[in-house]
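[retry 2/3] FAD-binding domain-containing protein: previous attempt timed out, resubmitting with same input.
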Amino acid sequence: MASSGWRHLDVGVIGGGIGGMSVAIALRRAGHTVTIYERSDFAGEVGASVSCAANGTRWLHEWAVDVEKGDPVVLKSLINRDWYTGEPVSVYSLDDYEKKWGYVYNMFHRQYMHAMLKDTALQAEGKGEPAVLKVNQKCDKIDLDTNTITFTNGSTVQHDLIVGADGIGSAVRREVGIHPAKRPSDQSCLHCNVMTEDAVRLGLVDYSQNAALEYWGGQEGKWDKIVLSPCNGGKLLSYYCFFPREQGDYTTQQWGADSLPTEDLLRPYPKLDAQVLKHLAIGKEIQPWRLWVHEPYPYLHKQRTCLLGDAGHPMMPHQSQGACMAIEDAAALGILFSEGYFNGSVEDALAVYTQVRLPRATKVQSAAAKAAYNINERIGFSNNKDIPTYKVEDQKKVLTIEEMNAYDMYRDIEEKIAAQNGQKYSGKFICGLPIGLQLPNGVVIGSEQEEQPRL
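[retry 2/3] FAD-binding domain-containing protein: success.
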């Protein structure tokens, strides 16, 4: 993919969250100058857990991020438990995960992961020019022709490339002409944190010992589900508590406000496994997690401005892939604007970015919506076809762990660039997946029988 057109870019990233810091690292590594504009000052943040499977972890290593700074839990398994008894119903072991996919499945506390990425983006050490962070800078509008950002304080800046990493309420998305067709989910969610030492002191089960993503419910085709994520080396247990929206509508509630009453958290679960219910009873920082279902967006860029992460493809949390999709977006931009791939045209590179990222993110987005009410659709559990309660909407369309972790983004980008240049692509990949790869759902990549859109 040798290209002689590479040139240095001055990049503006709007949004300094996980996606914004990730793309700052990726573009810094690619040799560009990056300024991050964040609307807040990060003060008083309350955090939940963040999943980072192998398809996200691989980029952290490629960018030389010090992962240990994030104090992760390396997951050993996924466990689905009976709603009433807590007995395991479906278990997906991750014992051979690193050997098979090359990287571990990390679980981070969001604040620690964010600090880890921010340090890497801004520090003097490492390849590339340190990114610059400017806080209390809220985007008001963007002139797409001149690539000029105007902030609500009246100041303006101009950049060669603008990346909108400003989340589900993205101002950049509006400026590139996308107005989401969205609706509140039929499901509500409250989040809380439980300190492992508090649970142990009260004689409760020490779930941190399992080093697992654990789920209660989800097999019955109902909205009720509890998800437990250990983080901070197991010291903190992050709980996501889902229930029907008619039992509590939090779509207008703000994250980061005062903790809600414990009664709000416990009320929907009169028959829940007593052990986990006792954990929830000592939960702190009870916060609403607003759930909105977005239809897929038609594109991810316009002219020299693009969208990343939740700004470009917000999704329900039920595949634990939201952060990984933002990290993959960042990685794609890092490759596309690197020497050997970037031909000097920002517009050409962003056209490939949309072609590479939109189909993959859209499929994960759709699969996350299905897994909201059927845990058998979730990556990992979707492989456990032999359990009595296994039932999915369409076996051929189930999202598999192979599609996520066998994906080669370099090959996907090379295939799309070849098409853009009117050249034949000779690699043995289709959309980044190896031709001949057999998926557990029976699909063989590249076969005539393959009907589903590839990731």
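[retry 2/3] FAD-binding domain-containing protein: Residues 188 and 279 are 20 Å apart (CA to CA).
[retry 2/3] clearing retry counter.
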